[in-house]
């Protein structure tokens, strides 16, 4: 069997009904973060049935499968995330979540099923593929921790190039999209705890009001964009939560605040982060209190390597035609796939899943999130085309 015949066989072996069935099974039992016992067991069960070896010793609650281990001259990685969101599903689908307060509202169930379907099709021509393939089933993308742990444990050490897809209702089913260069932002997670002194509300002179500290700091933070940073370097600074007190007549002793910084440049991120910390701590001091400021860089800027991006475009065009390849603009969203792209050439692309015939469509992270299952096969087709085009290395 020559390479062209093997490619045709692999593409014809894509089992659309299998992908949809596995996706629905995972969708009904969504799990969060690292607590993915059922999802991981499904992935292992299917890899065992397909006949692909794997390990669960890298990262936490993740599975890394390997095809053609002996063909070490070039290795292609493909990643799928597996975790769900703490959302109560409201889709009315017959395979809706059975786990109260948990839902696959971001499509990770589809990503996992598509990668399993891809693995199943590739297995039929494994001997004809002249490279190693690593299939990464990753935990806790939503908490931006799963990829970081896998990279720290060396999952990328023998991977030469890595790709991944993400479903989206921003483009129609049957289209796929990608952008080149830095396409998604770093996510810096901010936590503040203002501490003062409690008092009965009728004796405000006896209190050191942490709510006043938080409100004042919030107002001062808004000036960072207009007075402190280069307007040509975009970033988002959002305070998304202020929480304090428990009743109507007591000034509390603490107030908590949470926020995020999104940026394409880590130098910008660091500057804004430092300004935020200084403002909050100085504001608290002026009120007679203190502020503990903690921060965590959840994701890095996600950069699509130009060569890998061009190779993905070629694979997409073969799967759905050039007219159904669209350009995805840069956005302030974040993705922990950035940990892979920070160490090896990578590309992250979008699989269109919008089709009104599938029901009312919303964007991800909403209780009514529905995607068109007929699009899933195009994800597998793109993965397979990419492997066959680049098994000898990137051109």
CATH architecture of the largest domain: 3-Layer(aba) Sandwich
Which blocks of ≥5 consecutive residues have pLDDT under 50? none
What overall geometry do the principal axes of the alpha carbons give? elongated
Strand order, main sheet: write it out: 1-2-4-3-5-16-6-15
CATH-assigned fold name of the largest domain: Aminopeptidase
Based on secondary structure, the structural category is alpha/beta
- Gyration radius from CA atoms, angstroms: 24 Å
Structurally, the number of domains stands at 2
Number of strands: 16
Terminal-residue CA separation: 23 Å
**CATH class group of the largest domain:** Alpha Beta
Biggest β-sheet, characterized? 8 strands, mixed
Give the amount of beta strand, in percent.
25-35%
Query: Helix coverage percent of residues?
Result: 25-40%
The whole-number mean of residue pLDDT values reads 96
